[in-house]
């Protein structure tokens, strides 16, 4: 016991105040009659009591007691624990149960020292003893499990965390990050590693891990699908893999693994038919192999939209270049009715890219409605190819020749069959202009479909005036008699000239840097609309009417529980928005029911987020729109939700992770066979902690003190009253 003072003011000041009051009281009652001496005594007692309260004395008692700690035990019940790679071909789970049973006596001894809380975990945490349940979890989240176990044990002193797992973490918080937090709290991790760190002969498995395919493809066009397959136990053995469209095999190949746990890429191709138009389920599949551990992960699927009747565009460049081809693709990618194919005849180093043979096939295929000649010289084509190109234009195809150092006259095009179709006169002496070239539509050009960016002619002129200049342009000797001049430079030089040739349409465009227009939202929109309308005009689609509902998903394949972003736009045939239209959407889910999809207006389009992806299977987004009383119809897009089970894709145990966690927290890493002996040694340790308990009794803040104060004052008043003293 000890006495503790906590004065209201500094204690010298308190003592000085008390002494002053005592002296003043003595001076007041200096005449020493018995009654006054009694009153002085009472006054001194009152002042002393006030001083006692001002000093605020307390009695402090300290006792010690032992606080029982808590030991957390976490057992992994994910699906990977069923792998049979332990002694005598036991599964990891069976080995864990056996070691737990053999530790019964050690558990009993340990329970006398500490509290024990047992948990099982996979993707979630359950407080349960290790009984006869089967490991069936689809995730291993070691970090999440430890954090949640600590939260459930809040207020308890944790002596340590025993983790029994194979260490093959597949999600959640980083276990090493959690280990750092445990180190700061001085909580050790005792990790027991189950399973083999290398894949054994009895762990054969092939898992399809990824599939990549273009979300949209036109009928009769080749589609390449890439798959990733992770395999173990099949080193050196050719494994057949096949590609299916809506369940029908269309291509096949073989994959061969050079080492265990290797991921191999395989590309397979298909050419969808016109009858395939719509959403097609694309599947890459490996048939079950002899001795394979798991066969449910041999197949992977996604959806591709096959379109028929679209505009096929072939853009040919002499050698690889970046800016204009890249932004040409960006401009046309948002047009689902246009498919752009780009061919570079030479690579970045000027070497033959192996595309010349492909060029012959593409030109003779008849699959393209529009041909775009970039910066490419005529001598990169054979005479037959040039005649084939001219004939295609005569029969109705569109042709655009763009400017460049290898284009028009400098590229030798004046002496070719193609020059007959061009709307301009060219010769080898024509040169490439350098510097800024401002493009200005002519009066006819402002009204022409290609250059009409808005319906108002004056607004159209203002938009073109705001666009950045081109960087250089080609020059021509003149225009042909039947050609129509659509745009010139600010000094009157022709930039865009059009004419019909046979059943086809032809454009000569002196520029090749339209990507410079893409500054700001207005510039990006103008660039996109210019190229879309240019292609539509060349393909004789400039008079199309009606409207289209376009639905774009951010992906066609997602894991259970993931969200899906949906963009909906309603456009006229020329690609301009139809802001007066109203859209509604639902999603069909695998159980046959429909879930409303709430669309939010954003500008002239709609956006939505779909969350209810908890069922694996096929889903379908259905969007219907109306414009006033006009029904614009319905558009549907399918996507696939797969069961996100990453457990069986990582067969090897990860003991390095467990060792790292143990070392970081000053814990221990042990083999499963050491569990009984370790628990016995743990019972012999001093896991609990002596806790000091301090009790403080305030002597001044008590009812007795207040009673004495009033008693002294009352007694003084009574004596004064009785004796008639002032």
Automatic annotation (TrEMBL):
PANTHER family: BLL2462 PROTEIN
All residue ranges annotated as the Putative glutamine amidotransferase domain in the record: 380-538
TM stretches of this protein: 12-29, 41-61
Record protein name field: von Willebrand factor type A domain protein
Domain of life: Bacteria
Pfam families: GATase1_like, VWA
Alphabetized UniProt keyword annotations: Membrane, Transmembrane, Transmembrane helix
Ranges of residues in domain VWFA: 128-218
Species in which this protein is naturally found: Kolteria novifilia
SUPFAM superfamilies per UniProt: Class I glutamine amidotransferase-like (SSF52317), vWA-like (SSF53300)
CDD domains membership: vWFA
